[in-house]
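Check this.
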Amino acid sequence: MVETTTVDGKLVATDKNGRKYTLRPLGPENVFDILEAAGEQSTNRGLLAFMGPAFSVEAIDGVPVPMPKTLRDARALVVKLGAAGMEAVRAALEMDASAEVDEAAAKN
């Protein structure tokens, strides 16, 4: 189970092992960062979908995580997150997106 909270306006996901992932909001400029990091693999949609959530991680247990600059950096971050971390981050992002849709619908 994934727990999500908001701390200082930032989304925080907690994985099943108790590790906390502070997530940064990604803007259009970050899509460029992701594609640039992917390099020759930038047309590989499966790879982009898999590693994309890792780019949202701003900190792990309060320790800052730099935005990956290369595919090697992205891979290292995915390894550091592990399966539990990737699952927590992905689930938190999906829940956050769903909440935004619900919020927008409630305004209409």
The CA atoms of residues 52 and 75 lie 11 Å apart. Residues 3-107 form one domain. The helical segments are 28-38, 45-51, 71-107. The first strand starts at residue 3 and ends at 7.
